Every structure is written in C-alpha cells, then in structure tokens.
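Pipeline run #58 for the internal structure catalog. This entry was flagged by the ingest filter as a single-chain record with no existing model, so it goes straight to prediction. Upstream metadata was stripped on purpose; only the residue string is passed forward. Reviewer on rotation: M.T. Logging verbosity set to normal.
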Amino acid sequence: MGMIEDIKSDLARLIALYEGEKQRADRLEESLSASAQTVEDCKKQIAELERQIDNQQLAGAFMTGESNAVAKERISRLIREIDKCISLLEN
C-alpha cells in the first residue's frame, strides 16, 4: 500500500503545481491584454497629439510670417521626435 500512497501523494502534488501554474498563466495573460490596450490607447493619443501639433505648427507658420522652408523644417523635426516616441512605445 505504501507505493500507491506515494503515487497518490505525487499526483496530488503535481495537480497542485499545475493549478498554480495555470493561475499564473491566466494572470500573465490578463496583464498582457491590459498592456496591449495601454499601447493602443497611447497610439491613439499620439495620433491625436500629432494632429494637434500639425495644426499648431501650420497656424504658427502662417502667423509668424516664416518661410515655407523654415515651417517645413520645424514640422519635420517634430515628426521625427514623435516617431522616436512611437518606436519607444513599441519596444
């Protein structure tokens, strides 16, 4: 009977370990899903901010009387900075 009891004990321990790992996997999946949603929310916010920046820059370029080349350079610089932010979020 000792061998059967050992097998039952081992089996119970394995089941407990499996349940623990299953719960851990479920928590990690929830965390991953929440992180993915956060990334999507940030991407939407970035897109909206990019649109606002474009509008502000265009309005500013026309109000200050800057040349088109200066305005384009300023916009290009802002877009590069935003692209850097996006790449940091994606990593």
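catalog note: The helical segments are 2-64, 68-90.
catalog note: The two ends are 57 Å apart (CA to CA).
status: ready for reviewer M.T.
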